[in-house]
Write a structure and sequence with these properties.
By secondary structure, this protein is an all-beta fold. It has 2 helices and 20 strands.
């Protein structure tokens, strides 16, 4: 079950690095025939495909993120939908986009991206940012979705539709709820690259100049053999301290009907009056060299594939 986080989506889709680019998002009714977008009065259901390609390279990234709250642990499915515009003058003719999301039971949600107030110039067109739609509560684990992105132009009847079918990852407790077993000695979990960990608590001990981190490990079927805990600088770009915590040194707690894996590490002799950003990431390769976070690959021994786990960052802390 998803956590019901508010807001359902983020209303401001502007890019603060491009002041001339103005973008807002609002929810609209998919079957509302009164929906109009400036000069384009087509109803969503009546829009047809054309050869004019405006939005392209639509991607859907889903991540299972652990959320700990007091004595309870739940999982959140974070989904990011993004697309790109070509760096040519056709971009300046766009009024916006309609994003339509339909689940397997034909329930629909539609959102309108309004970019009609943008001030297009050659520099903005050449560096137009990638569009993102992020939600933490709209999607469900194990569900399939059909996604439609409609580009709306100032030119009458000039539209273009992109379609994407996506299957969301299993709930992290999937293997605990079924008889399915995962053999971590020979294979890798193909959904491990979508796991995002988290911290249970972070304690700062000023007198001892120590930061104690306690983080949450993934369920066993993700096959991780250890985690790297890090302290980065306040920008999050420079690594200052790090250590590896093997799974064998972590401990389990039973919370409700869940078995949760936790790890701890103490960073000692730290600098005073310096900001640190704690981070934790699974070790991406096993002791025998297998990739434990394969991306778009089914062979954990394929050296040509992308092997990448996801880091979870905490807000910056300081020893005073």
């Amino acid at each position: 079950m998803n956590i019901n986080f508010d807001p359902l989506f983020h209303h401001n889709c502007a890019d603060y690095n491009h002041k001339d680019f103005v973008c807002t998002v609002r929810s609209v009714k998919c079957d509302d025939e009164s929906i109009t977008v400036k000069e384009n009065s087509n109803n969503i259901s009546k829009i047809t495909d054309t050869t004019n390609r405006y939005a392209h390279d639509i991607r859907v990234e889903s991540f299972a993120r652990v959320v700990t709250h007091y004595a309870k642990q739940t999982y959140q499915l974070s989904v990011d939908i993004s697309w790109q515009l070509p760096p040519n003058n056709s971009t300046s003719l766009l009024l916006g986009f309609i994003l339509e999301i339909e689940d397997s039971t034909f329930n629909q949600s539609c959102f309108y991206f309004d970019i009609s107030n943008s001030h297009w110039n050659s520099n903005l067109i050449a560096t137009v940012p990638r569009f993102h739609f992020a939600s933490e509560s709209l999607f469900e684990f194990d569900e399939a979705y059909d996604i439609k992105l409609i580009s709306l132009s100032k030119r009458k009847n000039d539209t273009m539709i992109l379609r994407k079918h996506i299957q969301m990852p299993h709930h992290p407790d999937y293997y605990n709820d079924t008889t399915t077993e995962h053999d971590c000695k020979r294979t890798s979990n193909l959904q491990a690259s979508r796991w995002t960990g988290g911290f249970r608590r972070i304690l700062v001990h000023p007198i001892a100049r120590t930061i104690q981190v306690e983080f949450v490990g993934a369920p066993p079927h993700y096959c991780f053999e250890g985690y790297e805990v890090r302290l980065k600088d306040e920008s999050g770009l420079e690594l200052l301290h790090s250590a590896v915590v093997p799974v064998e040194l972590m401990y389990m707690e039973y919370i409700g009907n869940q078995t949760i894996l936790f790890g701890e590490y103490n960073f000692t002799n730290l600098e005073v009056d310096q900001y640190f950003m704690p981070s934790v990431i699974p070790i991406e390769r096993s002791r025998d060299g297998r990739c434990l976070c394969p991306v778009l690959s089914t062979s954990p021994y394929d050296n040509r594939m992308v092997c990448s786990c996801i880091a979870a960052d905490w807000h910056k802390v300081r020893i005073q």
